[in-house]
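Weekly modeling sync, notes
Attendees: AB, CL, MP (scribe)

Item 1: holo prediction request
CL wants a bound-state model with copper (II) ion before deciding which constructs to order. AB pointed out that an apo prediction alone won't tell us much about the pocket. Agreed to run with the ligand included and paste results into these notes for async review.

Input as submitted:
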Amino acid sequence: MMYLIGILITIFLVVIIVQIGKVNELTARLRGEKQAAQDGNDWNAKLMLLFMVAFLVGSVWSAIYYKDYMLGYGPNLLASEHAVGIQFAFNITLFFTGIVFVITQILLFVFSYMYRYREDRKAEFISHDNKLEIVWTAIPAFVMALLVVLGLVEWNKSMADVGENEKPVGYVSLEESDREDTYLEIEATGKQFGWILRHPGKDGKLGEKDYTLIDDATNELGLVFDDPKNIDDIVISDELVLPVGQKIRARITSRDVLHNFDIPHFYVKMDAIPGIPTHFVFTPTMTTESYRDHLSQFPEWNVPADPDDPEGPKRWEAFEYELACAELCGKGHYSMRRIVRVVTLEEYNEWLTKNEEKSFYLTNVRGKLGDPFINKKLSIEERIDRRNKEKDAEKKKDDAPAPDAAPSTTPATPETPTTPETNTEGNTLNNSSSSENSNGTTTIGGEVKNIIEKATEEVKKEGEEAKGLIDTPKDGGH
Ligand SMILES: [Cu+2]
């Protein structure tokens, strides 16, 4: 309906303009051609000035109005080290081009007005003016050189690979000075349609791959299992977990067509090309949690994330960094969105410990036909066994006084959800606790609470263990 009204109004306007044109022609014939041409020129010149004012005011207004929607302005902080430099180069460029934009627009329209046709005026002919030409060549050349150099410096910084003496790590060090010469290498493989994300595990090294081994059912990356570096590699496809303040080297590749590895908040963007591995090195500077805290100060982020659910989480609470594919790669392109969770260094080490037993090799190959280490005891298994034994021992110790304690527990208050970080185990525990709470059985609620507390303690302990692991020399035991 709105379209129909729009079309009718357009037709109506065209008819009016045509009619005005006809009236003008008639009056011109009555008044004489010359005078009519002069009047027409005057009108056009004045309209040019009007257009200039409307255009410049509109440009400035829209730049101010939409500023807060852009990354690097308003609430949208940039969350990586190199992004700040790129933003600086961008702002400087915008400053100079902005000045040039306003000056040239004013000259264009004001000159059109000033030098409109007059019968009594003749154009002046100047063959050349050396001084003028030097000025209008030298100034732009100087500014352009400045911008190019600035851009090049930032470009080289952003595109730099890790240094030769920097070493890859699995667990990240909590000491900033120890982290300086280290990087965490992760891998993102694009496919139609999704990202297969790989973490290196404790050894900090990604295992070898061979495309001829790719099998969608059993080995979607084509990992070479003879390579011991593959034993602890963790393959995860739903989210990318990154430690804050640690240099990350993303190894980027594709299994089929062109994709693009894009994390806008980090100013990270790189093509994923089948057959040509690319990379991007960056350092996240804000955890997801601290970014949410920052956003919570702004009124526009304090509205419900889902307009249909006014009681649901606020926009800032639902905020996530995202990894997108920025190359239109097919009909399922949109579904390549993945969450990027930036966590503290301690949380990352805990996450790695927790996910060690979910390594691709252990869950898919170990003990099966074709396992190259079938009769060997692996150090990763020893670690996991030791942790499980400690877990059991602790459980026994805690279970002993439990029967007395259980009945005396206070009635279950609705459990506040544990942090979303405890994704894998935390969630299941959490779900069971809330369902039991809704049934109103107090004892079970208390027990579940115990389990959660124990799990949290466990994770804390493993994290500390992980810290210790960094100091121990590399185990060549694999
Ligand atoms: Cu894609």
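Recorded for review: The domain at 168-376 is CATH 2.60.40.420 (Immunoglobulin-like).
Action items: CL to compare against the apo run; MP to circulate these notes.
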